[in-house]
Amino acid sequence: MENLENQFIKELQLRNYSSKTIRSYVSCLRTVSGYYKQSPVKINSKQLRDYLHYCITGKNASQSQINQVISAFKILYVNILKMDWSIQDIPRPKSEKRLPVVLSKSEVKSLFDVTINPKHKMVLMLTYSAGLRLGEVARLKITDIDSKRMQIKIAQGKGRKDRYTLLSPKILPLLRDYWQMYRPKDWLFFGFDKNRHISTRTIQHIFKKGLKKAGIHKTTGIHSLRHSFATHLLEQGVNIYIIQKLLGHSSPKTTCVYLHVCQHTISKVINPIDELLNE
Question: Which regions in the chain score pLDDT beneath 50?
Answer without folding.
Answer: none
